[in-house]
Design brief:
The chain has 293 residues and is α+β, with helices and mostly antiparallel strands. It has 2 domains: 113 residues, Phosphorylase Kinase, domain 1 (2-Layer Sandwich), CATH 3.30.200.20; 158 residues, Alpha-Beta Complex (Aminoglycoside 3'-phosphotransferase, Chain: A, domain 2). 37% of the residues lie in helices and 18% in strands. Strands 1, 2, 3, 4, 5 and 6 form a 6-stranded antiparallel sheet that branches. A hairpin with a 5-residue loop joins strand 2 and strand 3. Helix 4 packs across helix 7, helix 5 packs antiparallel against helix 6 and helix 5 packs across helix 7.
Amino acid sequence: MDAADIERAVEQRRIWLDEQLVVAASALDVHVIGQPVNTFDMRSAGAVARGERGDVWLRVVVQDADYEPVCRWDGNVEANSIRGVAKPEVLRWHDWQHDHAYLRGRRLRGEVMTLAPGTTIAPGGVLHEDPQLSEAWWKDLRRSLVALAAHPLEPDNELGAVASTISSVEHHFGIKLPESVFADVQWTTAHGDLHWGNLWQPTLCILDWESWRPMFAGYDLATLYCNSLLHPETAQRIRDMPELHTRSGALALLSAISRYLWIAGEGSDWDLLEPHLRTEGEAVLSSLTTETD
């Protein structure tokens, strides 16, 4: 498939997703009033919509086995149980199966959510410049992440985090970590995909709750730190947070670094992070090696 074929396929998918937003709007008794926004992988689309009680966010997502189990079909809805976190609430939803030629048989879900005020901080996920966030915003982020970490852990939903971190570190850094390194790791509930595209300003709101699950304590700050490395002042502010100065925090950093190294080189903003991620990963590995000597 050449570049022109890819461009045509992406455009076909975009048009189709826009059509599915209309289907979802009809089923959920709202009408789209905003310009549709697609995720980079073209798996979902969303737009501002209007209903009887005012403006909301309408989202439609296509079920794709390649994203499971990390992206949970019921993740956004089940996240309604989380308290004390600045996040949208899913008000209602509707599932259906697509029965026309394009992607026939695919399951879709439409969700109506409370509308987050403001705008995303960095649409591509990676921070390139000073976000100029207020101290109140940073305090709200701290409060939200503490509340999230305190949410009861879901059993048997760790998705092989230890094994995947070990294999990823070996692949990217040539070092085989023993499982014993993770013996005393602390687990907490994590958002799982905290980058600057999922954070809103000027009032904090954390979006995209498909991937929340148990993870090494500090993992959300670790992913946000990775996505801040092109703006050293913001990166340092996050790096100085206490969760990243624990053994679990170090392992969370290593896991997040390895994760982003897998997608570096695929033509996104994450490509720019690769040299910084390698430097950070080597430093964390050095500190862990020192501890175990």
